[in-house]
């Protein structure tokens, strides 16, 4: 049974992802409001996504799959997460190489082979690094049932293991750094899913204090967060954001609105294609004018619309006609 509060939360989370992708590696000049907001958003939006993913994984029964079902689960997760990761990564790399001949392109690859190697081995240099969530989520979703089985189903110990990984300092190769950095939030989502109505009742009861703390933290990071280490911001604010934002999307007036639910149900499609639509729109607009200073608000609105509506329209008008691609992006 679908949880509409989770769909709304996914809609909010993917909107924040698109917001963060508006500017990639080169900031617009004389724009002073976007970067502080982006810094604050980056302190919690992916922890919130992993929290939701952990909760969905528990509710779907993936966490407690026994050894006899691990191969089937692995095949399902690879098909759902790694296949889109590889296909979209290849498409983005090839597309950037082609587009770079005609327009400005952020982080264009040196060659197709170099781009594919970076996609897997050197994520920090990957031309398609925006897809990292899929690779990390696949690894987490395969590791968790093994951990749960080894630890005899004690989910608290599973969360402890993920918390311990926060202390590791692995290399960036193969997304190991992201795996260790975000595993705790996935584990906490599993714990929230296991608590069920006790968790949702608690966040509903404490909604306004949680949202007040969240708003205070958001303002503090936007104004002075550059002075704090990124991992510290991510850990503290990421944990705080999980109950606050989940409680936010459960407010009664939001529950009656279908906008976030609709966006949430297209969240994978938006995640896969938003950077392509943003990049194409940005490249075309930069042929007409700069995005510096007073021009940036119009750029921002256009790029947000492109990143959100472009993938949805592509899904509805093109991918629906190709059942394998339609299922892959559902």
Automatic annotation (TrEMBL):
Pfam families, A to Z: Acyl_transf_3
Domain Acyltransferase residue range list: 5-314
Cell membrane recorded as keyword: yes
Keyword terms, alphabetized: Cell membrane, Membrane, Transmembrane, Transmembrane helix
Top-level taxon in the UniProt lineage: Bacteria
InterPro entries on file: Acyl_transf_3_dom
Membrane topology qualifier: Multi-pass membrane protein
GO BP: any one term: enterobacterial common antigen biosynthetic process
GO cellular component entries: plasma membrane
TM spans (from-to): 40-60, 81-104, 131-150, 155-172, 184-201, 208-228, 234-254, 266-289, 295-314
PANTHER family assigned to the protein according to its UniProt record, in alphabetical order: O-ACETYLTRANSFERASE WECH
Protein name (record): Fucose 4-O-acetylase
């Amino acid at each position: 049974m679908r949880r509409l509060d989770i769909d709304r939360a996914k809609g909010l989370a993917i909107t924040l992802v698109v917001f963060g992708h508006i500017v990639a590696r080169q900031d617009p000049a004389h724009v002073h409001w976007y970067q502080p907001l982006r810094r604050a958003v980056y302190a919690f939006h992916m922890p919130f996504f992993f929290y939701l993913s952990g909760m969905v994984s528990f509710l779907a029964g993936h966490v407690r799959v026994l050894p006899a079902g691990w191969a089937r689960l692995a095949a399902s997760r690879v098909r759902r997460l790694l296949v889109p990761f590889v296909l979209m990564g290849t498409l983005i790399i090839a597309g950037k190489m082609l587009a770079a001949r005609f327009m400005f392109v952020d982080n264009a690859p040196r060659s197709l082979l170099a781009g594919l190697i970076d996609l897997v081995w050197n994520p920090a240099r990957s031309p398609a690094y925006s897809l990292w969530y899929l690779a990390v989520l696949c690894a987490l979703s395969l590791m968790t049932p093994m951990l749960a089985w080894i630890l005899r189903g004690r989910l608290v110990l599973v969360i402890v293991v993920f918390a311990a990984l926060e202390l590791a300092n692995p290399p960036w190769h193969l997304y190991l750094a992201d795996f260790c950095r975000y595993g705790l939030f996935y584990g906490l989502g599993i714990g929230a899913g296991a608590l069920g109505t006790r968790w949702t009742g608690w966040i509903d009861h404490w909604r306004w204090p949680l949202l007040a703390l969240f708003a205070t933290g958001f303002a503090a990071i936007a104004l002075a967060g550059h002075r704090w280490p990124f991992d510290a911001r991510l850990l503290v604010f990421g944990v705080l954001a999980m109950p606050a934002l989940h409680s936010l999307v459960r407010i009664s007036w939001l529950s009656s609105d279908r906008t976030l639910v609709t966006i949430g149900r297209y969240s994978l499609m938006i995640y896969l294609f938003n950077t392509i639509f943003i990049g194409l729109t940005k490249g075309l607009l930069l042929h007409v004018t700069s995005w510096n200073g007073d021009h940036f608000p119009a750029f921002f609105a256009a790029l947000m619309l492109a990143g959100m509506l472009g993938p949805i329209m592509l899904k509805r008008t093109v991918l629906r006609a190709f059942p394998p691609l339609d299922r892959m992006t559902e």
